[in-house]
Write a structure and sequence with these properties.
Layout lengths: L2 H12 L13 E3 L5 E3 H11 L3 E2 L6 E2 L6 E2 L1 H7 L6 H48 L10 H18 L8 H24 L20 H5 L2 E2 L13 E4 L4 E4 L16 E3 L8 E7 L6 E7 L14 E6 L4 E5 L2 E4 L7 E7 L4 E6 L5 E7 L6 E7 L7 E3 L4
Parallel strand pairs: 6-10
Antiparallel strand pairs: 1-2, 1-5, 3-4, 7-8, 8-19, 9-18, 10-15, 11-12, 11-18, 12-13, 13-14, 15-16, 16-17
Pfam family, one: zf-C3HC4_4
Keywords: Coiled coil, Immunity, Innate immunity, Metal-binding, Zinc, Zinc-finger
GO molecular function, one term: zinc ion binding
Amino acid sequence: MTAPYEDIVTFVANQLKCPICFDMFTDPVTLECGHSYCLQCIKTHLKRTGRKSNCPQCRAELRPDCKLHKNVTISTILELQEVGGRKMWEKVLTEREEELSQDALQSKLDFLKQEMEKIKMLQAEFHSLIQNGTCFTRDNIRTYESSSSVEMLSSSLDCEGGSQSADNSSSLSSVTHIDKVVKNSESASEENRVSLSEDPDSLGGFAEGGMSAATALSAEFVSLSFSPGLCHRRLVFLDQRRRMEVRLSMPLRTRVCRFKACQCMAEQEFTTGRHYWDIETSACSGWAAGVAYTDMGQDERLGRSKSSWCIERSSVSFSAWHDSSETPLKQRHPSRLRVLLDMDAGHLSFWSGADGEAELFDIRVEFRAPVRPVFWLFGTKPGNALSFPIP
């Protein structure tokens, strides 16, 4: 079978999965809104939600006496005896997912090996500097960037590689070793850091305290929206709940993902004016929020290139990033974040609290092109989520 036909068959097979249990349909039924589910799955959902029930996908209200109609078309496709029936569809899905998972796993393992070598070199340099009594700055050694990368990738491996065969177990064991190396490196870095606050120009375009309260008050609120084509394939945006979350059992897309990292770019694009949007971060273990030029590359990570700016919270730090240059922030990471963008004045600032109670950081930028909001949910851990409340 040629590649285009394989993609078509795989796409069709993914449409034969129940959105509730993520398995092949069993006794498929259709609601009035048009969405289909396994008979038992939707009955359980209706029983659990009681009289005020909604469609799990589109949130359309369901009447207490709603009829569940058998989906004859899906049932017929599932039982196509000429091509092997249900077993054939299950085989298509299993083989395709294993193929994609194996390729992704191998790519990430190769990258982790490279990161491990870099960390070993950093350790050797740490020991040399300690012996010589020399202080060093983050511009010379970027330990946190490496540890953040390893954290994100190892989390992703736990998620996407968890169902792989025992053949990969020896490779995955290297992740544990990397974690130990990272912790040792972080400890050495903490003992020997010096302050970077004396020279703002050395921080890759960062400077604190730039946007006035008056400017912040005159900004226009933006209700962000997202489309699947601008996100990583494991991210889904629930419009009714204003929530973006990681899901493992997402239907595979035939199109190329916008980003290889677990990132998503908003549909809104800004060239002029003052704008702001809010992010609820309490349900996400690691995240980054900022803006990037619309031509941000597929392989790029937020804050790691000249085309993007952000603040980031990981398990080891809370900091601002631009062009792979990190600036540690003294404040505690907020559970609710406000991003203020002044395209006319060239300011991007980050505030804590629903009403912008305190400024966390301000970045002065001469924007050369339109920018869009971008978000990075570290790893692909199920349940990681960012919400976008409306004031």
